[in-house]
Amino acid sequence: MDSSQTYPIRRDAVLCSLAEVPDGGLRVVLDDLRQTDPPGHWKHHVLVTFKDYPAGQLDPSALSNEELQAFGHYVLVRLLAINGCLPAEESAAERDAPLAGP
What we know:
The chain is of the alpha+beta class. Strands 1-2-3 form a three-stranded antiparallel β-sheet, covered by helices on one side. Helices cover 25% and strands 32% of the residues. The chain has helices at residues 65-82, 88-95, and strands at 12-20, 26-36, 41-53. The protein contains two helices and three strands, in the order βββαα. Helix 1 packs across helix 2 (88-95). The chain has one domain (12-95).
């Protein structure tokens, strides 16, 4: 995939990252990013949400299909919402929704 494509890129992005927590577990973090000048450069805008997993439990084969699907859905809806691509009532509901699962 050519990352230097010529289509205009929307102003906002979603960053998914992992952080190690002191007990040996992992934290999945979602942040909003905002594009800056020059194009292709991004700056942290806001922490959206995070979820901690105990050591050894963040394994795609150990997570339910529902949790994996909910995560993908959440990321896509968040990306659409922050870029103004959803009706107002949908984006408001997703703005502060936590990641799925206990």
